[in-house]
Amino acid sequence: MLFLELKVSFSLDDKIELDRDLSSALRGVWGRVLRSNFCYQKNLECSECNFENCTYFVLFEKKYSTSEQYHPYIIQARFCEPGVIEARFKFFGWVCENYEKLLYSIIKMNGRRLMLQGKEYIMELQSIKDREGRVLFTRFSEKIKRPKLIELDFEPEECSAVEIKFKTPLRQKEGGSLMPNFQWEPFAKSLIHRIRFINKHFNRDELPIPEHIDISSTLVSESEAYWSEKPRHSFRQDSKMSIGGLLGKVRVENISPEMMAILKLGTYLHCGKQCTFGNGEIELKKCQI
After folding, report:
1. Which of 146, 159, 174, 245 could disulfide-link 186, Cβ–Cβ 3.0 to 4.6 Å?
2. Rounded to an integer, what distance in angstroms lies between the CA atom of residue 288 and that of residue 43?
């Protein structure tokens, strides 16, 4: 599965600094850019348009299932210093084959307005780098460098124990309610479902994921997970909501080789709900029993 990560820096026309996640706000700006640049019939709603391969529709509006919906990208953004936003755009699957459109859409965010706490700020694009820190574009560039795409594989591995660190909130449901404490089974089932969904709809089913993956033998030997709030303000819907979840770390033992492969993919594709806004980023550390 193809994977592309772009690290993007924007400066604002004011030295504002907020200790809050900006992923939702930045996604809104990017969505407006996609619509203005790639929508062919702006006078119509997407449901009335026959262009099913429209870049905006594919990335923002298309429904790939009647139940759970996942998008082929993740956006994470915060202030790294007053007036400077550091963002990460992660893309996966066949959408990476259109990396020139993805880069173009991010570059066109330059000069756009970002609404924060009822005030508008002008965004100026400073640089775009790849996952390894190689500069692809700056505001002084005359041309754009080609990004490096990563190939993700399904790689089963024997591992007696692993520590899972939640770098951003894991928002997970169990029995219709949000999970206040870490539970292995709903976490594992949800992650398997997410990886299968992405593989089917965005990767042409090219990863050889087996039909059965054993999760029943796995035990949680240590848990230091705790709940952390993460507010989101949707200007499109004019509403505020929480997309908080679990932070901290857990240690699990007796992981099947196939589930270990799923966990490794999860370090790139995230876990749980609201992954589009950066939730569910995990880091793995192998341990000895």
Report:
1. 174
2. 60
Q: Return the CATH number of the domain spanning residue range 159-287.
A: 3.30.70.1900
Give, rounded to a whole angstrom, the gap between the first and last alpha carbons of the chain: 32
Picking from 11, 165, 197, 193, the residue whose alpha carbon sits closest to that of residue 92 is 197
Q: Alpha helices of 212-287 — where are they, by DSSP H? A: 257-269
Per-residue pLDDT at 230: 67
| Residue type at 51 in one-letter notation | F
Class of domain 2-151: alpha beta
- For the chain, which residues make up each domain, given as ranges? 2-151, 159-287
Residues of the chain with pLDDT under 70: 66-68, 230-241
Phi-psi region of 203 (alpha: psi -120 to 50; beta: other; left: phi over 0): alpha
**Residue 150: phi, psi to the nearest 5?**
-100, 145
Whether the CB-CB separation of 72 and 91 falls below 8 Å is answered with yes
Q: What is the CA 201 to chain-centroid distance, rounded? A: 16
- Report which DSSP code applies to 93: G
